[in-house]
Specification:
The chain is of the alpha+beta class. It is about 15% helix and about 50% strand. The relative contact order is 0.08. It is elongated and about 145 Å long. The chain folds into four domains: about 120 residues, Immunoglobulins (Immunoglobulin-like, Sandwich), CATH 2.60.40.10; about 150 residues, no CATH class; about 140 residues, Immunoglobulin-like; about 45 residues, no CATH class. It is built from five helices and 33 strands.
Length: about 525
């Protein structure tokens, strides 16, 4: 019984995995982009499923030291009864380059469930210079003073620009990189340029910086990309990009060897990039009237949610501009609405993404429109012009005309005649209620333009409160002075009680004769 349950459990796990293998199968190749002559390196082919009939490419320009060695790894997760798995099968070659040049490694092939998958071709550059590994190996042979010294050629930073001569509003990609021949382990005190004169947007990147190889003047450097930024120049002329500053932490072997092995020391070196200059030209003269500064490649769509409504009902007009360029800097569009429409400020929605090709996305203008009177109306075509960076000229996009039929509101007895011509604005004539009945009875008239300031009431509003305050102040001072005389206060109270009792005496004499002697 236990064996039967175990078999069922295994089937429960294995069967879903078999279905998952056919989903999103990828077959990729990885190799260093630059190697030195005589340097050993690994060429890897990775498949995320189990395959058969692996056919390696022809490697005529490289010597095969070992391979292919096959390794595999798997990951299985069960979350809320749902089984997910991932497989990785890696075919690894150890190669060595024998001659200088750029060589293309052809595609490799493998079969998965009777389907052939291929890798992409990859190019490897072979140079005469030393690799970072060989450079470190040679440094170990030097003395301690030499090994701890970091020259400017061993470590430097650059601000690379995709273009240095552009039109105003045309994008530039700024890539900040660090180049090293040493063992770089960290960064500190990073100071990026301010990029004044540009509108900027960072290109998202991984927080962990990975080093890749590049050939710089015959030397193979480990290169890390610290940041990529999209720049849009906002003024013409020469714009200077400030220096980039960085403090690098390097781990260098000291040359001493103990029982526990070689010893290392971490040192810090501050490096700066050179300032860069960008020349910005003004856009060509005589732009279209509908041009408002857009530069790039764009398209435009417009949509009216309904074209038949009743008076005082709301309508939404959405105009969407999308493409690649300075979308964030596009101003509001010039839309000609009928004069009797109540139009609110557009609700603007911007959705953009920064990539190595610039900023792409969309900008949507959502207009809320309320027609107040019945009739036939037309929203004329909306034009949008931009400067094309590909064609190097202005291009104009336009929407279609939108016709709107507005019916009379329920319960509205007002008759309306609507006229619209191409040269005049809308004219509304009221019939039946355009002449109101004359008002009868008494009514007040006042001089038009009469102001409160400078009038008699204006001055009295200041004088009367002042006089009342003065009277109150005098009476209060008199009361305080009299209360300060204690004998006088007692005399007044006694006199008040005497008068009160004397007033009651006649009444007591008449009604209480027994109190008399």
């Amino acid at each position: 019984m236990k064996k039967f349950i175990y078999i069922l459990f295994c089937l429960y796990i294995i069967l879903p995995l078999k279905n998952l293998k056919a989903d999103d199968i990828e077959f990729n190749v990885s190799a260093p982009s630059v190697v030195a002559i005589g340097e050993q390196f690994r060429l890897k082919f990775t498949l995320n499923a189990e395959g058969t009939d692996f056919k390696a490419p022809v490697l005529n320009n490289f010597s095969i030291l070992a391979g292919p060695s096959v390794s595999s790894s798997s990951n299985i997760q069960i979350i809320n009864g749902k089984v997910t798995s991932s497989y990785d099968y890696t075919y690894t070659y150890i190669l060595v380059a024998r001659k200088e040049g750029k060589f293309t490694i052809p595609e490799a092939r493998i079969k998965v469930e009777n389907k052939i998958y291929k890798t992409k071709k990859t190019t490897i550059e072979v140079v005469k210079g030393e690799s970072p590994q060989n450079n470190n190996r040679n440094n170990r042979k030097k003395n301690k003073v030499q090994s701890l010294k970091v020259d400017d050629e061993d470590l430097f930073v650059r601000v690379n620009l995709s273009k240095t001569n552009v039109n105003r509003g045309e994008h530039i990609i700024a890539t900040i990189k660090v180049y090293t021949l040493k063992n770089l382990v960290g960064f500190d005190n990073i100071k990026y340029p301010s990029f004044s004169g540009f509108w900027t947007k960072d290109i998202p990147s991984s927080e962990q910086i990975s080093l890749k190889r590049e050939n710089i003047n015959g030397k193979i450097y480990n290169v890390g990309t610290l940041k990529k930024i999209v720049l849009y120049p906002q003024s013409i002329g020469e714009i200077n990009i400030e220096q980039f500053e960085l403090e690098c932490v390097l781990r260098i072997r000291t040359g001493k060897t103990s029982f526990w092995g070689p010893s290392f020391k971490e040192i810090k070196k501050k490096v700066k990039s050179r300032s860069r200059l960008v020349k910005v030209k003004e856009l060509p003269e005589n732009p279209p009237l509908s041009f408002n500064g857009a530069v790039g490649e764009f398209k435009m769509t417009a949509n009216l949610n309904k074209n038949k409504v009743k008076a005082n009902d709301a309508i939404n007009l959405k105009i969407k501009i999308y493409g690649n360029g300075n979308l964030n800097l596009i101003d509001n569009l010039d839309v000609k609405f009928p004069s009797d429409f109540e139009v609110f400020d557009p609700k603007i929605k911007i959705s953009t993404k920064a990539t190595s090709n610039g900023v792409s996305g969309s900008k949507t203008f959502d207009y809320l429109i309320i027609p107040r009177y019945p009739g036939d109306f037309k929203i004329k075509s909306v034009k949008f012009s931009y400067f094309s960076t590909q064609k190097k000229k202005y291009k104009t996009l336009k929407t279609k005309d939108f016709e709107i039929k507005v019916e009379r509101e329920d319960g509205d007895t007002t008759s309306i005649v609507y006229n619209q011509t191409t040269s005049n604005k809308e004219e509304i004539k009221f019939i039946g209620e355009d002449i109101r009945f004359i008002k009868t009875g008494n009514f007040n008239m006042k001089k038009k333009g009469k102001l409160f300031y400078g009038s008699l009431n204006f001055y009295l509003s200041y004088i009367i409160p002042f006089l009342l305050f003065l009277i109150f102040f005098i009476m209060r001072r008199k009361q305080i002075k009299e209360n300060s005389n204690i004998l006088l206060v007692k005399y007044r109270k006694a006199n008040k009680r005497f008068k009160k009792r004397l007033k009651k005496a006649p009444f007591l004499l008449q009604n209480c004769p027994e109190i008399m002697p």
